[in-house]
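hey m, so remember when u said the tokens were messed up on ur end? i reran from scratch. heres the input so u can diff it against urs
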Amino acid sequence: QVQLVESGGGLVQAGDSLRLSCAASGRTFSIYRMAWFRQAPGKDREYVSHIRWSGGSTGYADSVKGRFTISKDNAKNTVYLQMNSLKPEDTAVYYCAVQLQIGVPYTNWGQGTQVTVSS
């Protein structure tokens, strides 16, 4: 099993930046990808970004491309999401999750961290 703990959320103004962290523990050698998702009130959970655990290739949702950057520190088993130029529509609970092999659903969700962007 892989356990995930998110941190770094907060209340910021539009245009500000935040960095989220997702620390993984347990069977981290089994991770294929880690990803960030978010869920705003009354909306479905949506994909934000992902990174390959080995190699580091990345992907982003169109809504965050050019503003958010995902990165990882394998030595710390931690994935980061640098969020710049934040907008009120980025307000959501942000979750990280792991994909253990290609094609299977993301799993082992963290508890989430709240990001609130005021206008």
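this time it looks ok to me. The mean pLDDT is 95. if urs says something different then somethings off w ur setup not the seq
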